[in-house]
């Protein structure tokens, strides 16, 4: 199966093009670099805020920046994104608001509200449950006759849940324009992918459903971008779903509440070249590394993150009313009574 | 010689140890793994990692990967295969990482575990335990804070147990594992490390179906379990300082209910406040109300009060303190009942 699904690369670990004749789009490379840097800064800031008790438990995505940015950049404005809790790098790149993304990790429902006109589902916490939603949403687009697609993120662990298989089967039967984007970061909390499944690849799971599948180097942002683009194009043209396995590596802990030294051998992952370092090497090799621009981007993004943190912390406090007001369009009488008596008790009645 | 002998006696007489609830659960699992080779543990991250709450810490090391099993990420798979294992001679103890992730397994519990004994007229049975940490109050991400006991108390054929203290946790978990029928074992994660208690080192069982009076008073009965016990006790102490005496009952088993315990107390006080953190409508308080109605109607001196989570999904953590019953809410209901 590993021969049938070779890991596709555009660049190697040294940032050298695998096919030296390939033409690279320098504007695209700069955009990818910009977004990967941006989401890395967000991620690191979130970890540090959690350590200081300024937000809640946080699941870092460091190491997966290429997989997230490369895939989401292949979408258009009208497409749909279905993230998990670890995919805020992708949603930020797709246009989610940074302040609200911080708010999400501070226990605020405001963090699930996408900007007007952006089709971003709230992050799915129950594993794999978002996969059928992406199929249904794509199905709706197909029935409405648009060319919009839905891209859904999920981890290696998610492939063990029924929802993964049910989602793939529906997409196959109804030929929905869905891109199943798996980030195989090799661990589901403490369980390595070798114990999650006996199959050698995740891509091969598409075979059973007659869904075209590829395995791509998830730390090679150009390869991820290209393969996702192909899948998106097929979906737009009515050619149905694709399963992409992006092989990557979670650099840090599962969440800020997790200690990976308990289950990951010390040296494992040491040889992985960080996707941003790889892109930097490529840019240097291709004479796209402009120090002044890099510094300017860095400053600009650090500032953006700081401003967002400040806005998150100055955000008006959560209203107890919000506990009740959005459960139904119109509050049933008995729920309204619960609300009123509670508000009276806490002196807000 | 003398000294050594004394030392020996000392270790022999050390019959309890000071444990938190999560340590007591670990101790119960260890005891059963040691004493009954058919006991096996299944769950996500329970092996090398010792479980996300460390409830199974060290157990895979001691008993091997064959008995403390890191399963694929699949709750329906864990419970479904455990049903097969249970029918065929094993006693599986499954861990749901959080109660909010039990829902994919609901189908297996509802359509098979709960009724296999009945539909085979006793030929097959499912002696299985499903452990599930539940409840809000630790600033966890969404879905990690549900407490859905009543979907299981409503399910015929399964027992539901929920300890509030380390000692009860060990005795009840061992009883659950030795029970011939499926048991949902709810663990209040907020109480995992909140308190230490002297816990017997030996194997012991506490009876499923029996609650306990934790505090004695004449004016009102407070009925609760799990993580809400400490909230209820706090409110009872505040009430006492106003001269209101409270009976505080810890139910410990949610199905079958200890009806005698409830009836005896309510017949004495004539007033009841039921406290649970699950949503109100369809919550277990309704069944407790029915028990009081059936056994103690003519003794009542005031309408029965309920202090529960609201009929809203458990919110993100910025609002969870507004969702959870507080001592203030319980006290206000105690006062309402007493001054009716
Ligand atoms: C249905 C369900 N069961 C258990 C969990 C607890 N849990 C949270 S993350 C996780 C591992 C997920 O692994 P994977 O799908 O590989 O994604 P990753 O975290 O590596 O991005 C588990 C078991 C959950 N969130 N949902």
TrEMBL record, chain A:
The keyword Cell membrane does not apply. It is an enzyme of class 1 (oxidoreductase). The keyword Oxidoreductase applies. Keywords: Oxidoreductase, Pyruvate, Thiamine pyrophosphate. GO terms for molecular function: pyruvate dehydrogenase (acetyl-transferring) activity. Its EC number is 1.2.4.1. Residues 36-321 form the Dehydrogenase E1 component domain. CDD domains: TPP_E1_PDC_ADC_BCADC. It catalyses: N(6)-[(R)-lipoyl]-L-lysyl-[protein] + pyruvate + H(+) = N(6)-[(R)-S(8)-acetyldihydrolipoyl]-L-lysyl-[protein] + CO2. Its cofactor is thiamine diphosphate. One of its GO terms (biological process) is branched-chain amino acid catabolic process. InterPro entries: Alpha-ketoacid_DH_E1_comp (IPR050771), DH_E1 (IPR001017), PdhA/BkdA (IPR017596), THDP-binding (IPR029061). The pyruvate dehydrogenase complex catalyzes the overall conversion of pyruvate to acetyl-CoA and CO(2). It contains multiple copies of three enzymatic components: pyruvate dehydrogenase (E1), dihydrolipoamide acetyltransferase (E2) and lipoamide dehydrogenase (E3). NCBIfam families: PDH_E1_alph_x. PANTHER family: 2-OXOISOVALERATE DEHYDROGENASE SUBUNIT ALPHA, MITOCHONDRIAL. This is Pyruvate dehydrogenase E1 component subunit alpha. It comes from Aquisalibacillus elongatus.
TrEMBL record, chain B:
Keywords: Oxidoreductase, Pyruvate, Thiamine pyrophosphate. Its cofactor is thiamine diphosphate. Pfam families: Transket_pyr, Transketolase_C. The keyword Oxidoreductase applies. GO terms for molecular function: oxidoreductase activity. It comes from the Bacteria. SUPFAM superfamilies: Thiamin diphosphate-binding fold (THDP-binding), TK C-terminal domain-like. Residues 19-194 form the Transketolase-like pyrimidine-binding domain. CDD domains: TPP_PYR_E1-PDHc-beta_like. InterPro entries: THDP-binding, Transketo_C/PFOR_II, Transketolase-like_Pyr-bd, Transketolase_C. Signal peptide: none annotated. PANTHER family: PYRUVATE DEHYDROGENASE E1 COMPONENT BETA SUBUNIT (PTHR43257), PYRUVATE DEHYDROGENASE E1 COMPONENT SUBUNIT BETA (PTHR43257:SF2). This is Pyruvate dehydrogenase E1 component beta subunit.
């Amino acid at each position: 199966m590993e021969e049938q699904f070779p890991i596709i690369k555009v660049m190697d670990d040294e940032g050298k093009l695998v096919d030296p004749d390939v033409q690279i789009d320098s504007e695209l490379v700069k955009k990818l670099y910009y977004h990967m840097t941006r989401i890395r800064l967000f991620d690191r800031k979130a970890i540090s805020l959690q350590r200081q008790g300024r937000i809640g438990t946080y699941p870092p995505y460091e190491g997966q920046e290429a997989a997230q940015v490369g895939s989401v950049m292949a979408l258009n404005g009208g497409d749909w994104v279905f993230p998990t809790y670890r995919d805020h790098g992708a949603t930020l790149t797709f246009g989610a608001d940074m302040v609200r993304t911080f708010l999400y990790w501070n226990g605020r429902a405001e963090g699930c509200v996408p900007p007007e006109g952006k089709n971003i589902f709230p992050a799915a916490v129950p594993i794999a449950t978002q996969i059928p939603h992406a199929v249904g949403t794509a199905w709706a687009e197909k029935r409405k006759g648009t060319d919009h697609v839905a891209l859904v993120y999920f981890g290696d662990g998610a492939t063990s849940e029924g929802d993964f298989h049910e989602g793939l089967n529906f997409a196959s039967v109804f030929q929905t324009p869905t891109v199943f984007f798996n980030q195989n970061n090799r661990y589901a909390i403490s369980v390595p992918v070798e114990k999650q499944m006996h199959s050698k690849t995740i891509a091969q799971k598409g075979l059973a459903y007659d869904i075209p599948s590829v395995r791509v180097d998830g730390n090679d942002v150009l390869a991820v971008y290209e393969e996702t683009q192909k899948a998106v194009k097929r979906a737009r043209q009515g050619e149905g779903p694709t399963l992409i396995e992006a092989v990557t590596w979670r650099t840090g802990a599962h969440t800020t509440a997790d200690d990976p030294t308990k289950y990951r051998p010390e040296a494992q992952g040491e040889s992985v070249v960080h996707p941003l370092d790889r892109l930097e090497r490529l840019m240097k090799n291709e004479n796209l590394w402009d120090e002044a621009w890099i510094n300017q981007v860095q400053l600009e993004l650090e500032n953006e993150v700081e401003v967002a943190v400040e806005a998150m912390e100055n955000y008006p406090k959560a209203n107890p009313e919000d506990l009740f007001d959005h459960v139904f369009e119109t509050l049933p009488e008995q729920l309204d009574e619960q609300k009123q008596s509670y508000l009276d008790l806490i002196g807000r009645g | 010689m003398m000294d050594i002998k004394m030392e020996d006696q000392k270790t022999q007489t050390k019959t309890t140890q000071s444990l938190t609830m999560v340590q007591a659960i670990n101790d119960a699992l260890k005891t059963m793994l040691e004493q009954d080779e058919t006991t096996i543990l299944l769950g996500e991250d329970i092996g090398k990692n010792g479980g996300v709450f460390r409830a199974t810490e060290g157990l895979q090391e001691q008993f091997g990967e064959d008995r403390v099993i890191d399963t694929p990420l699949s709750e329906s798979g864990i419970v479904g295969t455990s049903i097969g294992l249970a029918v065929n001679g094993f006693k599986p103890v499954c861990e749901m990482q959080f109660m909010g992730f039990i829902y994919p397994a609901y189908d297996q519990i509802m359509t098979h575990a709960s009724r296999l004994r009945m539909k085979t007229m006793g030929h097959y049975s499912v002696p299985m335990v499903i452990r599930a940490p539940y409840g809000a109050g630790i600033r966890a991400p969404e879905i990690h804070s549900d407490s859905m006991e009543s979907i299981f108390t409503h399910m015929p054929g399964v027992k539901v147990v929920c300890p509030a203290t380390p000692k009860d946790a060990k005795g009840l978990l061992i009883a659950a594992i030795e029970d011939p029928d499926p048991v949902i074992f709810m663990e209040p994660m907020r109480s995992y490390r909140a308190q230490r208690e002297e816990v017997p080192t030996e194997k012991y069982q506490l009876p499923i179906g029996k609650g306990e009076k934790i505090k004695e008073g004449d004016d009102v009965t407070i009925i609760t379990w799990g993580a809400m016990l400490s909230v209820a006790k706090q409110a009872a102490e505040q009430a006492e300082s106003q001269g209101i005496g409270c009976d505080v009952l810890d139910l410990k088993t949610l199905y079958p209910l200890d009806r005698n315990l409830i009836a005896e107390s309510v017949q004495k006080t004539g007033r009841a406040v039921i406290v649970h953190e699950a949503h109100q409508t369809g919550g277990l308080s309704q069944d407790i109300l029915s028990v009081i109605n059936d056994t103690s109607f003519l003794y009542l001196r005031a309408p029965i009060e309920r202090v529960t989570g609201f009929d809203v999904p458990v919110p993100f953590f910025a609002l969870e303190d507004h969702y959870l019953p507080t001592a203030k809410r319980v006290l206000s209901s105690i006062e309402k009942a007493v001054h009716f």
